[in-house]
Amino acid sequence: xxxxxxxxxxxxxxSLDVAFSAPTPGVxxxxxxxGCGKTTVMSAVSGLLKADTARIVLDGxxxxxxxxxxxxxxxxxxxxxxxxxxxxxxxxxxxxRRAPEGPVKFDETVELLGIGHLLDRRPGRLSGGERQRVAxxxxxxxxxxxxxMDEPMAALDASRKQEIMPFLARLHDEMHIPIMIVTHSIxxxxxxxxxxxxxxxxxxxxxxxxxxxxxxxxxxxSTGTNAGAVLSARIGRHDCARWLTEIxxxxxKILVPIMDRPPGTPVxxxxxxxxxxxxxEEPQAISTNNVxxxxxxxxxxxxxxxxxxxxxxxxxxxxxxxxTPDSRHDLDIQPGKPVLxxxxxxxxxxx
Length: 351
What we know:
Layout: E1 2-11, E2 14-23, E3 27-31, H1 38-46, E4 53-58, E5 61-62, E6 73-76, H2 88-94, H3 106-113, H4 128-140, E7 146-150, H5 158-175, E8 179-183, H6 186-192, E9 195-200, E10 203-209, H7 210-214, E11 228-239, E12 244-249, E13 252-257, E14 266-272, E15 277-279, E16 290-301, E17 308-314, E18 317-323, H8 325-331, E19 338-343, E20 349-350
Parallel strand pairs: 3-8, 3-9, 6-7, 7-8
Antiparallel strand pairs: 1-2, 1-4, 4-5, 9-10, 11-12, 11-14, 12-13, 14-20, 15-19, 16-17, 16-19, 17-18
């Protein structure tokens, strides 16, 4: 089961040529700077843009052979685009007018998005985050086979983004509808995406599982604050005496500050590359709780020689470490070398 996308289109000053595949159900994030072609890809998938070449296949069904109205794709835009003269309830039911019978129910959607108290209000009396939640609900109630979200939080301030993010995460966890999201926010990618498609100047630089792509040393953002590992994990045991919680990420045990969630709860964590130090032998008497044995998979230095980047593999789990070329030289960091990845529990971001 997969979403397979091939889009080619020439503009007067820009050419787009992308192809990728993502497993379904799941969230695929199109990530890159403004103007790189993300929204053009989404427009071609929805049918709003008649691209020069477009082949869109969802779970074996060729959507690009269908008219836009027949594709059963829900679209959520940056500004929500609600009908101002209708109440929230009427806006939601508008999405149901031509929808076939399907698994998405009105009451469940209202509960999922936390908008039950808003049903009688008009859009003009909603906050930005509330408007986007209603827009998502309207799209869901159209019984889409695929949900497209074009930078749904781009117009929101930081507090409103934090308000809507948990609801997007619940869509991921509970609705089981394939989602494609356009974003230039690494926070949204780390928290929501299963597959990451990195686009630059109309072409794909990398595509694959989000944890694998974000931990690659050969990509441009590996030198910045966006670099780091994103891991899916489950809560293991709580060590109340030490105020720590152990989580299990594919067999890798990681300590984080104590969490108020029961064992077995799924979580996603991000470990910034700037937080990960490397050592050849276990140091004594340090404040770092996490010391994890792995093997260097890849290493490179930036052209200006100000940074070295090392991918460290622990089974199927990847970490990325930023270090100086001097440290790389002193430790002789090379592909295939056994190392220890060290990072503080407080440096792990639980998403």
